[in-house]
Write a structure and sequence with these properties.
The chain contains six helices and 15 strands. By secondary structure, it is of the alpha+beta class.
């Protein structure tokens, strides 16, 4: 079977000319490019492939994310009848949208596999935690959230800028998928100004438990699996009285300052596809803080009532990303981890937190 390929037209470059302080190249045929300011990555001709092991491992993680989304969307459509979708407030046109999103994932998987070449992972087998249509929709919006946030975390760090361009144009589509599922769930579609980014190890920690079996030739995913974190009695966006809508002016599902209880696993548990021997690990000491990852911010709250692998904290108080605008920093589908130090990180160097993660992340449905 033929697979789609990415084709690009490459022009031969002659010596650059200078016009009003800016340089631009002249192409064969005497057609110069328009003038532009100096600077920026001028890779030409672009090479659309992983340039380093970091690139390969990051893109391969993204490919595994695309594969599970492709399978997940088809699984829900096959598992539930038209009547079951109708009882959840979704009609056949909505079902077709989910089917089209599955087709999008097929295209994303082809694109990422081409970036990786012959060593690219193949699709695996999966297990899912839903038994009803609303639970399926809720799982879709959570899974697409950590897939989207995971890509944002590594995208600007790729050595291959051309590959980053391909990924950028696929993850923007996934962002739209995530919003559609929040609308299907009857949530306010985007109760935030910015989408958070997480590290590859955090994404892999969230993804691995749903993968049951993979082809033996699949390359090993070299990111860490942190011990699982569970929010006891977690907030949920599922409400039988609030069905799908373009938007709903729902209040936050949580309250700033409310108590949140956790329990977590010890390191050393086997996770992910059988036969690959992935085990959870951590380099952190005992956890002391909850790290709330939302929008541009990582906000820490101290743990208390620590007993064994259980503890409590309080959700951050009403903090805005910018004080000039009322925008609660913890809202929408966010992430929470347990860490041993409250180090300062920003979106670009967020992966520095990996060395301090004792457990998590968990997906936290704040709004």
């Amino acid at each position: 079977m033929k697979s789609a390929s990415i084709c690009f037209l490459v022009f031969s470059l002659l010596a650059p000319l200078s016009v009003q302080g800016a340089s631009f190249p002249r192409y064969l045929g005497g057609h110069p490019s328009p003038p532009k300011p100096p600077g920026g990555d001028q890779t030409n001709p672009p090479v659309y492939s992983a340039k380093s092991d970091f690139d390969f491992q990051s893109i391969n993680l993204g490919l595994n994310q695309e594969y599970i989304e492709l399978d997940l969307f088809h699984n829900g459509l096959a598992k539930f009848s038209v009547q079951e979708f109708a009882e959840a407030g979704l009609n056949e046109e909505d079902m077709f949208l989910i089917e089209f999103m599955a087709n999008q994932e097929a295209g994303h998987a082809i694109a990422l596999a081409h970036l990786l070449g012959p060593r690219a992972s193949k699709q695996c087998n999966y297990t899912y935690p839903f038994t009803t249509v609303p639970e399926f929709i809720d799982f879709c919006q959570r899974l697409t959230r950590f897939g989207e946030s995971g890509a944002y975390g590594f995208l600007p760090h790729l050595d291959s800028r051309p590959s980053a361009q391909i990924l950028l144009q696929s993850i923007t589509t996934e962002a739209r998928q995530q919003m559609v599922f929040t609308q299907f769930e009857g949530l306010f579609p985007m109760p935030y100004f910015f989408v958070p980014a997480i590290s590859q190890s955090m994404q892999w920690t969230l993804l691995a438990p749903y993968i049951t079996e993979c082809p033996k030739e699949n390359p090993r995913i070299e990111w860490a699996n942190f011990p699982a974190l569970e929010v006891i009695d977690p907030p949920s966006g599922l409400d039988p009285f609030l069905g799908p809508a373009i938007t709903r002016n729902r209040t936050q599902l949580t309250t700033p300052g409310q108590e949140v209880q956790f329990k977590w696993e010890s390191p050393g548990k086997t996770v992910g596809p059988k036969g690959f021997k992935y085990t959870t690990t951590t380099n952190a000491s005992e956890p002391k803080f909850a790290a709330w990852v939302s929008q541009y911010n990582t906000t820490y709250t101290p743990l208390y009532n620590i007993y064994g692998n259980a503890a409590s904290t309080k959700q951050p108080e009403h903090i805005s990303v910018f004080p000039e605008v009322d925008d609660p920093v913890v809202n929408g589908t966010v992430f929470v981890l347990l860490v041993d130090q409250d180090i300062f990180v920003t979106p670009y160097n967020f992966s520095l937190l990996d060395s301090h993660v004792a457990a998590g992340p968990a997906v936290y449905q704040a709004g």
